[in-house]
Amino acid sequence: MKFIDKIKEKFFKKDEHSLSVRDERLIARNNRRAMKEFEKKKNRKNVPEEEYLSQMKDENNIVEFEGLKTYFFTDVGTVKAVDGVTFSIPKKSIVGVVGESGCGKSITSLSLMRLVQAPQGQIVDGSIRFAAKDGKVYDIAKMPVSEVYKIRGKEIAMIFQEPMTSLNPVFTIGQQLDEVYELHFNDKDKKKAKEHSLEMLNLVGMAMPENVYKCYPHELSGGMRQRVMIAMALACDPRLVIADEPTTALDVTIQAQILELLKNLKERIDGSIMLITHDLGVIAEMADYVVVMYAGRVIEQGTAEEIFLNPLHPYTVGLQKSKPVVNKKVDKLYNIPGNVPNPVNLPDYCYFRERCDKCVKKCAGKYPETVWVSPTHCVACYRYAERH
Amino acid sequence: MPRLNTDFIQMIKYVIKRLALSVLILLGVSLIIYALIRIQPGLDFVEKKYQAQLQQDSTGQVAELVKQIQATYGLDTNIFAGYLKWLSNILQGNFGDSFQLSVPTGEVTYIEIIGPDGNPILTPKYETTSNVVSIIFAKSGVSFIIALIATVLEFIIAIPLGIVSATKQYGVVDYTVTVLAMMGISLPSFFLGALLLKVFSVELGWFPYSGLTDPNSGLPVIIDQAWHLVLPILVLTMLSVGGLMRYTRTNMLEVMNSDYIRTARAKGLSEHSVIYKHAFRNTLIPLATLFAGILPSLFGGAMITEQVFSIDGIGKAAYTAVVNGDVPFVMAYCMFLSILTVIGTLLSDIMYAIVDPRVKLS
User: Fold this and answer.
1) pLDDT of residue B2
2) CB A307 within 8 A of CB A95
């Protein structure tokens, strides 16, 4: 019986995912129209500043995401990678963004940099307010591409998750670092650039920076490359650093060093870090605030203490349960059953409903509203809707 | 700079090793080509020449004569013995004489001929040679010029087009360029050549339709020759641009999707320097392999195109030689191409090491 069910399930699923030729054409046409429209908007020139100037809701924040929607127009339909994300990054803090693969963490950060793979990926709606050095507040989501260069790299720097492939293989470390200095300090003086680059390499704890300066990326180890990436981010002297899984590709001892380095980096630039990871241990160690994402939405956010000591959303609880604990013997490590729902055609009910073991009657209804349980702690779950 | 020095020595060692290896390769290649040309079906060169007489031969005298001539041409032996003979000649520096082709040596001797009035008249006699090496040198000049111009044009047109079409993927420019490139790849050279001849020479009369010079054109010789070369160069360029353009486009697309391009963008670099500095250097790496093919194509001539436009280059000579079973010339021509190919491959490997710092020759 079970076997037959399995087969049924398989065929049913296949039906759900297969597209007729007509559907495909319709999707392709809509995609083309949408992409063209968004690309046109992005590539406008001489846009008046008022169009993308904005006001922060809270002066203490450096970045505020509000209702951010980043969609990918693919051949199988529109993938809502980020679907209405709202959270903020306070000044001089580390905000950790957690969630499993494909939940939209990286796309949120790439939207902030305006580096989403175009033309398929587009910011469709919402705003990303950023308080720049010059005192103005820019809405990055509405900026035309030509204006983004004011911010990208200069005020917001990014560290990527794959140090092995994130450095250009045909240029030396020195060339790649000098470039940053020349660009952001508008100084073509080679000597000064080299001095600055060596200082940066020194700062990230690189032994023999002179040698590393002359090396090509393939001559360095993974940890060293990640240090170079951090040096590169540091060289821009940004106010916000996005670290997209900076330790994922590294071994554990190097991970600790890199995290320590990131903490120092925050002190040095006197700014904020948006730390994206799926390692809860890293979050616990580093973050002041935690944002938990699931299927393109924020399902819970709060201070690190609130999230770790008082997790509310069943998903957050599940995540923590599935983390191995030192000195605790278990037969089998907990895992959340099921999979993330297909990002095309997301249903209009709680995306976690099918995997949740704490469902209540109300869960059959619409996607739950966000509920604030404390001034800093909010959760999108029906189980807390009535109490507050 | 101790590091660079050791790298350099390594490279020299590598080159010597490769050259030694290529001698073996050339030996194998020459054996295969010799066997192929000798087992060519049908009549051999001498038999073809005396075909008519052979058919009417009732006494067997012509057959006897043919056998004698075959012996002088070295066509009476079996393949392996013939190959060994050819090889020993080559090692002695004797590349042989073409059975049918000859080129003027440039020397002129004067012979006295008794005129109709009984007085001797000095008549010029233009010396010719059938030595295959001389023929190759004499005939590859014009082919080289055509190929060089076509290759330069190919690179100048194809690489920027490939880059533009990759950076504007799925745009109007991309679709147009890709479709045109596809057409260029699909058209055979004899068809495109014939089409251009029909349109531009026969109908419009803008360009001459065959040969290299026209004594009646009234133009200076160089301009006249250039005028004659326009259509063949156009054909060669149009046919080769497509492939290179698609190759560049694919490489560029792959590079543009890589992580380090995202890093370069995240640094705040302008799109221009992302594409032309960071991406372009990486696109050059696979393009370096193309250098292997360039050398033989530069000197080897274009068989079909030269045939269509009746240009007296090495391609046309090779075509006639193959059709007629001219063993010494085909051998020399193929060996010439093999040597160029071997050198070209070596050069492309060295180029790899220069363009890509990750590659070390050893």
Assistant:
1) 47
2) no
pLDDT, residue A64, reads: 92
pLDDT score, position B156: 92
* Interchain contact B278–A (C-beta under 8 A): yes
Which run of H or of E encompasses A129? Answer: strand A121-131
CA A85 – CA B284 distance, rounded (Å): 41
**Count of C-beta atoms within a 10 Å radius of residue A208:** 9
Task: Calculate the dihedral angle through the C-alpha atoms of A221, A225, A226, A229, rounding to the nearest 10 degrees.
Answer: 180
Strands (E), chain B: 103-114, 120-129
Distance set, CA A52 to CA A40, A55, A203, A271, B240 (Å):
16, 10, 36, 23, 48
Closest Cα of chain B to A153: distance in Å? 4
* Separation of CA A107 from chain center: 6
The ipTM value here is 0.84
- What span, in angstroms and rounded, lies between the C-alpha atoms of B191 and B304? 10
> Min CA distance, B174 vs chain A (Å)?
14
Closest CA to B208 of B224, B191, B193: B224
The pTM of this model reads 0.78
Say yes or no for a CB contact (<8 Å) between A113 and B266: yes
Task: Give the span between the Cα atoms of B3 and A383, in whole angstroms.
Answer: 67
Tell me the pLDDT tens digit for each residue of A251-269.
Answer: 888 888 888 888 888 888 8
**CA A226 to CA A201: how far, in whole Å?**
11
- CB–CB contact B268 A183 (8 Å): yes
Q: Provide the pLDDT for residue A2.
A: 66
Q: Which residue of B has its CA nearest to A110?
A: B266
Residue ranges for chain A with pLDDT beneath 50:
none
Q: A158 and B266 in contact by Cβ < 8 A?
A: yes
Strand, helix or coil at A160? coil
Q: Which of A115, A119, A216 has its CB closest to that of B265?
A: A115
Any idea which of A11-15, B7-11, B70-74, B346-350 has the lowest mean pLDDT? A11-15
Q: How many A/B residue pairs have CB atoms within 8 Å?
A: 70
